[in-house]
Sequence to fold (642 residues):
Amino acid sequence: MTDSTPTGFASLGLPFPILRVLDELGYEAPSPIQAESIPSLLEGRDVLGMAQTGTGKTAAFALPLLTRTQVDFNSPQVLCLAPTRELAQQVAEAVKTYSKYMPGINVTAIYGGSDYGSQLRDLKRGPQWVVGTPGRVMDHLRRGTLQLADIRAVVLDEADEMLRMGFIDDVNWILEHTPRSRQVALFSATMPREIQNVAETHLKDPVQVKIQTKTTTNDKIRQRYWFVGGAHKNDALLRIAETEEFDAMMVFVRTKQATEEVADFMQANGFKCSPLNGDIPQALREKAVEKLKSGQLDIIVATDVAARGLDVERISHVINYDIPSDTESYVHRIGRTGRAGRNGEAIVFVRGREKRMLRDIEKATRQPIEEMPLPSAKQVNEKRREKFQAQILDAMHSERNQPYREMIEAILAQNPVDALDVAAAMASLLQGDKQLFINEQQDARMLEARERESRNEARNESRGERGDRRERDSRERFDRAPRAAAKAAPESRPKPLKGHPEVEMVRFMVNVGYNDGLKPGNLVGAVANEADLDSEYIGHIEIMENFAVVDLPNGMPAPVMNKLKKARVCGRPLEIRPYSESEIPAAGGTTRPVRSRNEGFNRDRAPREAGNRDFAKKSYRAKPRADGAAPAARAPRKAREG
Fold:
C-alpha cells in the first residue's frame, strides 16, 4: 500500500490553483520560513517573522493570504507595506504570478515616483490586494482614494528597513486606520525595540518564526558583478565569452523569449549555444544537456525553471544575465558551477536600480561580490586575432587545399601582386562582411560615456530611495500651479535631436499621448527596458494629445520592435510604427510643449491631468517628530518627487 500523505507545499493546505503555479515555477519544497508561516497565516493567526531578505518571505505571506482572499469581493482586503518602490513592485509582481490561476484577483502597487492618475484608475477597479510604500498609502488615505474598511490582513515587509527610513510613525498611523479584527504579518531581519513596540501594539498573540541563515554559497566560486553601462547585455556577454577561459557556460535569463534571443545572438557570433526553457519538450531539453556534457555545446541559456536539478561538471562559468528576484534563486543558479571540488566563476549583470538586490545577495550569502570591468576592445581584439590565426593554421592541409593553391599560383603568375596581399584577400573572404576588430578609440569613448550614464542612473536611484523617506513631507506638491514651461507656446519647442553622434536616428510614432497621461519618462522607461537600450540612444520626444513621436536608432531588430509594439504604457499598448505625417490628422490633437531629453525634461512637468486638479485644494503639514524636534525642512522639489 502506497503512502498518499501530501508532501511539499501540498502538505501545508494550499489550494490546487496555487499548487499548480508553484509546480510551474519549479518550487519543490517550502523554505523554513514558508513551512512555519503558511499554516499559521492560513488559520488567520498573526505572525511575527524574523528572517533575512531572500529567504522566501514573499511567498510565505502571499500564498496563504491569497488563499483567504475573496475573489468576488472587489474591495481592498490585503494591504502590504514595503519600504521602497522597488520592493513594492517586486511584491506586487510576485502576487500576480502566484494568483495566475485565480481569475478575478486584482493587485495594485502604489508608490512615490509614479503618477497619481494611473494609480487612481487602478484603485477604482477595486483591487483585493494593495501593495505600497507608507508615504503614498497615507496620501491616498488622506485623499479618500483608498479605503481600508474591508481590510482583512496587513503585511509589514522588511519592517526594520521601514524603521531605518523613518517610516515607523507612518506605519503605526496606517495600522490605526485598519479594522481591529484584521490579521497582521510582520517580517523583519532584525528586531529593534521600535519594531517590538509595533508588534506589541498591533499584533494579537502572534506566532513567532525565527530563521537563522548561514553562508550558502560555495567558497570555491569567485563571484563578480558587471555594472550594466558600457555596452548592451548581449555585447557584454559576448565580450566575456570571448575573453574568459571557460569550459562550459550557463547563462540565466528571466523569460522564455530571452533564452531564444540570447542563444540566437551567441550562435550568430560563433558559439555553440542552445536555449533551455519550459516550452522546449523534455526530450529536447535532455538532449541539449547531454550535448553540454559531451562538449558539443559551449553555452546553454536557460530560465530558472528549465535549469532545475541540472548537474554538469563542465560548467565553469555561470552568468546571471538578468539578476534574480531573490537570493535563494541566486544561490541555486551559481551552484551550477564549482561542482565536484572544482573552482567556478559567477558573474551577475546589475543595473543601477538593481543595486539594492545585489546588497541583499551579499548580506544573505555573507560574501562580498567584487565589481569587474568589462573586457576592453583591445582585449577582445587580441583574442579575436588569436582565434582567427588558429582557424587559418587549422585549415592548412596540403592535399585538401591543392586546388586553391593552384589558383593562387595562377594569380601570382598573371598579376604583379604580392603573395601576402592575396592571402589577406582570402582571409577577408573568410571573414565576410562582419567586422573582425572593434574600433578601440571609438569603443573607449562609448564605454566612458555610457559608464558615466549608468553611474548617474545608480545615483538617481539612490536619490529616489532617499526621496521615499521624505514622502511624508511632499504631500503638498500638488498645490503648485503648472510651471511656466508647461504653458509655453508650441513655437518654443526645441528642435529634434540628432541622437547619438555616431548613430543614425529614425522617427517613430506610438499610440499613447498626453490624454493618456503619458510623460517623457514613461516612454523612455518603456523603450529602455523592453529594447534593452541605453537612454543615450533614445532621441527627441514630442507628445501630442493622442499619440507621441520618438527618435530611435535606425535598424532596430524586428524582435525588439515586436516587443515594443506590445509594451504597455499608461495602460495602453505602444503599437510603435514608423513616423508618417499622413497619420497625424487621423490621430488628431496638438503638440504639448514637452522638452527634449537632452534639455532635462525630467525637471519640467507637463500640466496636471484634469482629474488631479482637485487635489490642489488640499495640503498637509509634516507631523511633529516623536523626539519633540521641529519637522524636517521640505526637501528640494526633485528629491520630493522621488
